[in-house]
Amino acid sequence: MLRLRVMARVLRVLLVVLFGLAMATLFTLYERLQVPASADRRQRWSQLFMRKLSSALPFKVRVIGQLPQQPMLWVSNHVSWTDIPLLGMLAPLSFLSKAEVRSWPVAGWLALKAGTLFIRRGGSDSQLLRQQISQHLQQACALLIFPEGTTTDGRSLRTFHGRLLASAIDCQVPLQPVALRYLRDGKADLIAPFIGDDDLLSHLMRLFAHDCGEVEIQLLTPIASAGEERAALAYKAQQAVQVALFGVQASATAPQRRARAA
């Protein structure tokens, strides 16, 4: 029975991926025919795909708080690659991802066609990235970033890096902090995190071999960015997420084992 359940869940995900590939192919056709495909259109198609993918994952999702009524720069803690569909289903969003994702089979191409912005770790293109994020925000398109820069096991929070928030200050776009929590039997879920030497397929199979977990998504009070220093803005966002997840503020983040970004 367990094997049949896993196979049925995998098949459902594969069907959703095929749907996503069809959408990406359509956008490729638009590009070749020089038909404009606005960021807004890409975001709405991406949201549809994320909804279907989220429904195929073994999670029961609870959303707390109000969706923003204007485009904002969303900032969230980062636990797993599953954060992306679970947050992407909530609103039309684009994502900022590490550059390596672009070379991933299937997933990288889907991310590219969805309008994902890619960043090199320690790269020298910070100013270019700042301009790209600013241009994106000026088009009234929401963008989500994971300012920790990597995933954690969900039981602590890493430092939020401020350099990626500079564009929000430039454009005077508020931040929408998000606190993401994975639970299983009322405790921190140790199956959902995508860390260490995990690979995508093994992680997916591990998820499908277990019963449904719970995901709690807290949409916190937006934070104004106008007139702020980026380090101060990052600290405010980090503290908001820290309090929402753990109930206490932190003067410093706890050390963690090396993790990998989704």
Automatic annotation (TrEMBL):
<keyword id="KW-1133">Transmembrane helix</keyword>
<dbReference type="Pfam" id="PF01553">
    <property type="entry name" value="Acyltransferase"/>
</dbReference>
<protein>
    <submittedName>
        <fullName>1-acyl-sn-glycerol-3-phosphate acyltransferase</fullName>
    </submittedName>
</protein>
<keyword id="KW-0808">Transferase</keyword>
<keyword id="KW-0443">Lipid metabolism</keyword>
<dbReference type="InterPro" id="IPR002123">
    <property type="entry name" value="Plipid/glycerol_acylTrfase"/>
</dbReference>
<dbReference type="GO" id="GO:0016020">
    <property type="term" value="C:membrane"/>
</dbReference>
<dbReference type="GO" id="GO:0016746">
    <property type="term" value="F:acyltransferase activity"/>
</dbReference>
<dbReference type="GO" id="GO:0006629">
    <property type="term" value="P:lipid metabolic process"/>
</dbReference>
<keyword id="KW-0472">Membrane</keyword>
<keyword id="KW-0012">Acyltransferase</keyword>
<keyword id="KW-0812">Transmembrane</keyword>
<feature type="domain" description="Phospholipid/glycerol acyltransferase">
    <location>
        <begin position="72"/>
        <end position="183"/>
    </location>
</feature>
